[in-house]
């Protein structure tokens, strides 16, 4: 057999562990939420695996989570009989952090630590630390696990320092046990006594009530009658234990199920509290912050489904990375089928989190089947419309929340202008853009149109790298002088969609940097006509000499009506690509 080895944590993992040990996260109770959430995921995975692989030698007869307390040893064990892990899994999943954006997160965190502890808390909340949160309450953690269908178990142990030990485990049952060796109790810290059944019951109820697997705990006296749903006796392992200890006369301790196990999305809307939604959100999203908005929808009849979706309040670090995951899980008749269901949400809404539970799909449904499934396409269409209309409602009902949403996810939403033609108008409706009208506050297109000057036909915009470069652009001068509002489009994605979208609400988008500008009214035109003719004559020689000497660089040199203070500017032809887009193409090697 393999001996016990001591291995180093990956450096990112080590840094995160240090954070947890010197915990700056004030809500310690959340460690239990994380461990229960992992246990629940492990049970989901096992059930799914047995659907996929009929030959898998696994026991699925009584899938559950179990909490065990040993007051004398000061340990708390969170045990599940789910999928478990083999040695490689443990090294890769527990000894390493594979999350994208980790390095970036740690840099930000280091920068924030010296300043304000609340920023660090915020960042941790944004990142989520999962299993490592155990070290907020434990000075040593032992993990014993065996992967379903495999013979050899694994024992892992660490005090959260630079290394951990890993070796074989004798007689490890299927699934995972996490044994927390709790830190010494502060004498008067009643609030954080995780050996107290009352405390554990409260924490599970608060954070994990909706978990669809039973979370059980042995209790000295049988549970009160109010929790009649609980199996009060004879859990299989309790029975085994009792057999082994034949000399003991006393009754096996009763097992209480701590959670109600009700799927939130299946409960009537008005019976679910916002706190319950929030905790559920944290479970499905692995986010530690509260969601910004909760969305429910359901369909009955020939194709029945329920959806419970969330808009997060913060963008994940990997939102713009290639492997960014989509956040909607698919369930079929309350059974978890898959994470990250691409078929249910388009890429530009990848930040939406939650669950869709379809009643009429097969439990064996695969990605290939989903791609072809007409019903799934219908659900997707409805989800998209509902998400867009929810955001639109936010704009008027909760403007501050909308502003948060837009600054976090606007760039992703705008990708939809290039990919979702059916909803283009609806997407434009929820966009907002920085504009010369107000330094501080971006404007929606509707608001822009309402402010349009009499006779103004187009929505004017200018693209550029930054607000400042746009503000300082000579292209803007004439528009500003005449009091026209111009949108300042600074996101890279703006360059892409603006050329392919005709307009909004019947108004075309018009770049102030392209083509000829003609901002004069009819009146002004008449009076300036003679003046212009004169100027053309005066400058004819200069213009032709400039055209000659710059013939390599420009197509034409002409007198301009767009400048008020700058002497000259470069403009593109109406159909030219903009300089920023040109830069992007070049960067992409085209
Ligand atoms: P996350 O849950 O966000 O992936 P965690 O730090 O909580 O991050 O867990 C890391 C990984 O370790 C999980 O994704 C899972 O693969 C594995 N893991 C953790 N706990 C368990 C468990 N009880 N059973 C099986 N695998 C687990
Ligand atoms: Mg987790």
From TrEMBL:
ATP binds at residues 34, 38, 80, 85, 99-101, 126-131, 176, 367. CDD domains: HATPase_Hsp90-like. Pfam families: HATPase_c_3, HSP90. One of its GO terms (molecular function) is ATP hydrolysis activity. SMART domains: HATPase_c. Residues 222-249 are annotated as: Disordered. Residues 1-367 are annotated as: A. GO terms for cellular component: cytoplasm. Residues 231-243 have a biased composition (Acidic residues). Residues 368-583 are annotated as: B. Molecular chaperone. Has ATPase activity. Belongs to the heat shock protein 90 family. Homodimer. This is Chaperone protein HtpG. It comes from Actinoalloteichus hoggarensis.
